[in-house]
Every structure is written in C-alpha cells, then in structure tokens.
Amino acid sequence: MASREGDRWSEIVASGGVRQPHISVVYGRRRVEESTGRRTTDMRGSFGGEQRPSFAPSKRTSWNRSLSIRGRESIFVAPGANLQPQKNCRALKQPPKPCNRVKKNVGGPPDFRKEKAYFAEVDACDLMEESPSPKNFGTWTRGMDIDHDLPAILERWQISKLAMPVSSKALFDIIETPVIPSVLSNCSTSNNLFSNSCRTPEKDRGSGGHTMGAIPLGFSDIEGTNITASLSKLNIKGGPVETSIPWNGEALTAFDQILMVCKQSAPVTLAEVFSAYCELGSIKKLGEGTYGEAYRAGRTVCKVVPFDGDLLVNGETQKRSEEILGEVLLSLTLNNLRSNRVGNEQKDSCDGFIETRDFRVCQGPYDPSLISAWEDFDAKRGSENDHPKDFTREQCYIVFVLADGGTDLESYALVDYNEAHSLLVQVTASLAVAESACEFEHRDLHWGNILLTQDDTPERNNTMSFILGGKRMHARTFGLTVSIIDFTLSRINTANLFCLVEIKNAAAGISITNTWSPNGMGNLLKFNVARTAILFLDLSADPALFQGKKGDKQAETYRRMKEITKEHWEGSYPKTNVVWLIYLVDMVLQKMKPLAPGNKVERELRSFKKRLASYESAGDCLADPFFADVLLTEDERLSFSNGPSVGDVGDV
Ligand SMILES: Nc1ncnc2c1ncn2[C@@H]1O[C@H](COP(=O)(O)OP(=O)(O)OP(=O)(O)O)[C@@H](O)[C@H]1O
C-alpha cells in the first residue's frame, strides 16, 4: 500500500501545493467602537440519549465575536446564469446586465431602473406563486430553483462602492492587488487552466516599495475590450498604484442589492418565508450563534440574522446590509464548489460546505411560531441569546435557507474511530479543495461550525467524492456526512473562480480571444481584474478574540492564527486551516477519550496531530499517511464499491 499511496500523495501534494504566505489587500475595513464582546470558554459535554451517547451541551459554547471586527467587503464571481425568471413568469424579460453596460456609464450614474422594474415584476409573480397556505407548502419549489448571476451581483456591488460618498470612504475603500502577469499567463486556454496559479501576488512587506493601491475597478465587460487599459493601470512591475475614480452618480444601496439577490422588491414577513417550508407550528430551533438563530423548517434549516436595526442583539450591534451582502456572496461562492453546480472541467469541487439554497429578506416582529420554538429551545437547552420578543415592526432580517447539516460536533458523540477518521478526512479534503480553488481559509472552525449527520444504518462502503487539482478522489465516510458552516471570519480569493467563468463562457460558445500579451508572455485569457478580489475580516480589530483563557484549545487556535498571519489578515496563510485541523484532532481526542482511553487509536491521533504541526496547508495535511486507508482513487473506489463490504480501518 505504501508505494501506491506514495504516488497518489505526490499527486495531491503537487496539485494542492505548499505555498508561501503571500499578501494582497483588497479593502479597508470599517472600524467601530469596541463592543462588549461576550465570550465563553465553557466546553462541557456529557453522554446521554438512547441510541448513541450525546454530548448535548446546556449552553452554546461557540466563540462569540465582537461586531467591532465586522466590515467585510466581498467581490467574487462564479459561473452564474442570467437572472432567471420564475418558471411560470414567461412574460418577464431579462434585466439588463450592469456588468455589460457600466463602461459606457463611466462618469455618470448607473441606471438600475430597468432592473428594479424587472425585480418588481418578479416579486409580483413570486407573491402569486410563493404565498402558499401552510397546507400547500410542499408545492413551493422556489429555493431549489434559484440560480444567481454572480457577475451581475458583483458589478452592482462594485458600482455601489465607487458611488459611495466621501464620508463613507473609510469603510468602502477598495484596495486591491491585482493578479500579476506571470500569474495571468498561467490562466491560459491550455489544459493548465485551473492550475493553482491565479493567486494573489506576494507583497514585500519589508521593502516598503509596494504600497497598497486602490485599483480602479475597470468594469471591463466580458469581451474585455478595456482589459489592456485596466491592466496597465495596475503598474504591475512597480506594484499597484493608487488611483481613484470619481463617481458622482447614485448606486443601489447594499440593502437594494440584497433584495435583488433575493429577487424581492420588498421584504416579506418571517411567517411568509417559513410557511413555504413547513407548518409554522412544526418549527424547531436547532442552534444559535452570536448573530444567527437556526431553525428547522421542514427539510431545510433557516438561519435568521437580524440586521440594520438599532437594537443591540445579544449585546452586539446588528450587522449592516453591507456585511450581510458580503456573507451572501461568500455563501454563493462556496456553493459554486458543489459537485452539482459545476461542469466536468472544474478543477476543484466538493460538497463539504453547507449548501445555501436561498436567501430571503424579512421585516417585522419575530413571528409567534419562532418565539415559541425559541422558548422551547431555551427551556430544554438554555439559550445564551436575548429573547427575540423585542424586535419591532421595522426590524429587518436575512434568512439563509440552508440544507440541514445535522448536529454540530460539539453536541455529537463520535462512536468509534471510523467516525473520527471520516470526520477528519472530510473536513481536511473540503478545506484542501477550497484552498486550491480560492485560497479559502475558514479561520473559525470550532466544533459548533462542523455539522454531522449519520445514516441510520451506516453503509460501510459509503464514499464521498471531491476533485482536488483536477483529480477526482474519494473518501470513505462510514455513513457520516460532514458540513462546514459559518464563514463569517473566512478569507477567500476569487481569482480562480474568474478563470472558471471565462472558460465556461468559452465552452458555451462565447468567443474568447487573446487580446493581451504583455512582455511576450504568451496568450492570455481576457481576465476581468475588476472582479478579482479578496474577502477577509481584519481580526486585529477585535483584540478580545485573542484573549481567551490560556490553555483553552479554541482560544489558543485564534492566537496561533495571529502568530501565523502576523496580523496581516488580508494575506493568504493556508496554515490557518492547519491549526484548526490540529484543534479538531484535539476535540476528537476529547470526545474519543471516554471510549478509547490510552489505546492505539489515541496514539494514532496524537502522532497525526504531531505531524500536522509541520504542514503548511490543508492540502499538505491530506497527504498525511493518517488518511491513507480512507482515501481512494477512482479505480480503488470502483473495486471498493463493487467488492464485498470492507472492514473497518481501526475500530476501537
Ligand atoms: N445548516 C444547518 N443545519 C443544522 N444546524 C445548523 C445549520 N446552520 C446552523 N446550525 C446551527 O445553528 C448554530 C449557529 O449557526 P452559525 O454558527 O451559522 O451562527 P452564527 O450566528 O453565524 O454563529 P457565530 O456566533 O459562530 O458567528 C450552529 O452551531 C448549529 O448548531
């Protein structure tokens, strides 16, 4: 097995790659006054329940974060389809795409009247279609049908940034380091298209010669006619140059943009959204975070996040529309890694991040059905959050309609080594894929943010698939399915996703010509640098995050991230994923201990943990021999699933 594995691991390592940390700054962050920042380090767990032991905690133990750190900006793109009207709304016309119009509008305000009119029409249609009585909720299919035109969403977002008045500049400065030519040259139409090359360039911190620059977002259209000009403005050799674009016009507010993403012209009530998925009386609260309350509604989970209001929620300032928009865009980006969203040409794909099925903007007081579910949860498990009764008629919420990811790891009892193995390989593979696709770092992967479901009768031959660096791989699951949630602190680079969009357009018959070939570097795809950017959150604005109890694994992990990034939170440091994997092994050890005190399993986990410390990325971690028995190549999987049920890899 060793030599065969050796080959595979060298492939994984080659495709995942060990990268040096590099930096790229995209935007300035809003800094607000310090908040109260409630935190807890209570990590209790206890066995209970009937069929499997339960670690159900009496309190949420996630690491609460201060809203003082908020202020994410988001730019990204994906192979989005046009804004599709609802099935029965044939008369609707496509809205004009701002991304293809903006250039002509430079110097003047973008005109979104047609789009607004379109969405008003969509919404009118939605109202007819989407207000079923609770009895008919099964016929309402909106969520699964939604496709989002991410490039268009992004263009609107960018325009709004440029159109912001000077007073908001601190919040909305867009500081962007471009994809550099050598990188671009790898984004060619060759087979090497999806190589790990569309990366943020390194920033020479020491020299001081490379100041961060505010790049004018060129809004080149997909034909890229302005691409040369845009790229030349980036002053590639000497580093980015600060420029600014005067923009006097109006633009859509972030709130309007969220409505457009949701295909709504106005907020609806919480009851309207929930009744589309279930009988209101059947709603159950599943969990809570500092900002969100998660409720089961039929077969979906609706996470309700209040925003834009003045009321302090759980001791914190509510999120602002801009931040919600960023989270919406980030969720959509991760959705695009899903196997059902991409074509065969996708270089990286996995299903390990929770599927976001829809978003809805709501307004009004909390619905009595939700209050009752909230109180029920509080009575049974004890809530750390404020009672939602104080929300007024003006209060707005975003509802993230998510797939049901199951139970969070904190409350889940791992029953044997196979489950632990499955958990670790799935999380590691997902991080490795997202790292490769978009320099993704989760940065907050505590055990409340990993959800698990187990088949009632786990099929020993179950596997999950993922594609890493163009190579399809499989992991044995032992019936366990893992979903990663909560991307509030995550960092992402959209560059490779843009490559993908361009190629998909090419595949769809839209011509891509080679228009730019600087320094004889060869043919390049037209690359819309305007849409290439990085989302991150500057955690240095939240010192309390790093002041958790000494020795507490979660608190220590935030501090490790701080050491790794040296507080350059904008940079790419895939090692942050590694430290969360180390934390995860600690949590697994904690959970396994009562089952396997001091035995071989514990020793294996400990030596795996030791090796993890030497890795630089989740991609590296995936190549560790610890996963050799649970990772399968395509051929191995075929013989595996055709053969007799394979034994466990190491039962306790
Ligand atoms: N898709 C889902 N399926 C099942 N449970 C979920 C889902 N999403 C969220 N939950 C539950 O709700 C809890 C809170 O969700 P989440 O962490 O996303 O909220 P948050 O407010 O963003 O949290 P944080 O304070 O960590 O930022 C989770 O720990 C989990 O128990």
**Sequence of strands across the biggest β-sheet:** 1-2-3-5-4
Task: Give the number of DSSP strands.
Answer: 13
Number of helices: 19
Give the DSSP E fraction (strand runs of 2 or more residues).
5-15%
Based on helices, strands and strand pairing, what is the structural class? alpha+beta
Small-molecule components bound:
adenosine-5'-triphosphate
What radius of gyration results from the CA coordinates? Answer: 24 Å
Which residue ranges are poorly predicted, with pLDDT under 50 across at least 5 consecutive positions? 1-111, 122-146, 163-198, 200-249, 498-531, 646-652
Helical content class: 25-40%
Please tell me the total number of domains: 3
Largest sheet: 5 strands, antiparallel
Described by the principal axes of the CA atoms, the overall outline is globular
